[in-house]
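Our working data are protein records whose layout never changes between entries. An example says more than a description, so a record of this kind follows.
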Amino acid sequence: MRMPQPTPNTRARYGRFRSPDGQIFFALVEPARVRRLDRAPWLGARETGEIRARGELSTLCPVSPSKIVCVGWNYADHAREQGRRAPDEPIFFLKPPSALIGPGDAVVLPPESTRVEHEAELGVVIGSRARRVSPERALDYVLGYTCVADVTARDLQRRDGEATRGKGFDTFCPVGPEIASGVDPAKLRVSCRVGGVLRQDAPTSDMFFDVAALVARASRIMTLEPGDLIATGTPGGVGPLVDGDELEVALTGLTPNEAGVGVLRVRVEAAEVSF
């Protein structure tokens, strides 16, 4: 049957999976099983009637955006640690979709950099085309939320004076494990652990520009297409990643009664260089 068009108030979880025979599909996610969809949830998906046990499936990156819109210095403590003042308006930059990886995949440390850092972020998945929308209506265009790691070659970013190379390497945008709708983006806590050690931890309410403002401002610059991803900035505490690290990004509710988004775990590996 055709699913109703998802809205920000619809409580649901969406994921993308691979079956043992190699089939890749989107699904509605339940605790122990998934209900297969015939297409991405932002494209008016139908349930196929097929139900699969989660344990028999591999979890993949849940998004396939036309673009990844990122926000710089959107938390005061991160702006301070990078020597930046509070921005007067959102600072946007883009990461290429080729940077995407999913849960359990590896961030590959490029040989061009000697300082790769983690940035844990709230990701916003666009549900319907947005062009010059108002802040009051902006959340109507959001499908849901997911965990994002905006991995950054900090030495290259500083050397270049802009973000394209330092943030654009393959594997530099882990996303997942799922997309959660019906979540209040202002009532989440974003945290990052490396090797089990807590490095970043802050409420999303600390953002200079909230999700509605970011969607509205970005839509004045570019048309946001269904499935596009906005990474909303990182709190303070960014730090280095090295070969063998385990990186964890979590988005939890501020209280036990508030719904969270999930926990994304990836590993870190040095590149095997061959010329």
The chain has four helices and 19 strands. The domain at 12-60 is CATH 2.30.30.370 (SH3 type barrels.). Residues 211-221 form the longest helix (11 residues).
